[in-house]
Amino acid sequence: MALCLLAPGLLSSRVRGTTVLSACHHRYIIDIVIIIWRAAMTRSVALGEAEQLILLATWRVGNEATGAKIRVELADRGGRTLTVSSIYVTLMRLQRKGYVQSRLADPTPVRGGKAKRYFTVTKQGVAALREARERMERMWEGMDTASDLKHA
User: Fold this and answer.
1) C-alpha closest to that of 74 among 93, 89, 87, 85
2) Dihedral sign, CA of 93, 44, 133, 63?
3) Which pTM does this prediction carry?
4) H-type helices in the chain, by residue range?
5) CA dihedral (122, 119, 57, 51) positive or negative
6) How many CB atoms lie within 10 A of CB 58?
């Protein structure tokens, strides 16, 4: 039998390759998992600049938003040129966060039998955009005049 240290003050027994934990050990592990999960959820809520731009462009395009249409909207309004692949990677991340939903259209012969993927901004996505905007407005508050820029 060997002892393994799982967390400060938490020991488990290893018998024939199997870790044996008592009920109180399970409680510590659950607490640690909850702390890690909460930290991960907190980090994923804030939107980065690219996420904000892509989310806004998707919202502007509407229910028929595809990667190509979002790319055009970003170039026209945002002055940013991103590859379609970087847009899709960001859209997938936004979908995991619950800020966009996607659906596949029927495959068409024009596209070689491939289906288009359409994206729609969710209510949570709109709320995240508004929160990001309010956060930036609070940071800019009072910084409109040159005299307010003490360290510039």
Assistant:
1) 87
2) positive
3) 0.65
4) 23-45, 49-61, 67-73, 84-97, 123-140
5) positive
6) 28
d(CA 132, CA 3) in angstroms, rounded, equals 48
CA distance 52 to 133: 9
- Containing 146, the helix (H) or strand (E) segment is none
Query: What's the pLDDT at 50?
Result: 93
3-class secondary-structure state, position 3: strand
Q: Is the dihedral of CA 39, 45, 47, 51 positive or negative?
A: positive
The domain locations on the chain are 2-45, 49-140
- 95-147: pLDDT as tens digits: 999 999 999 988 888 778 788 899 999 999 999 999 999 999 999 888 876 56
Q: Identify the bridge partners of residue 120 per DSSP, sorted by sequence position.
A: 101
Q: Rounded to whole angstroms, how far apart are CA atoms 54 and 97?
A: 14
Q: Which is nearest to 88 in space by CA: 72, 70, 62, 114? A: 70
| CATH of region 49-140 | 1.10.10.10
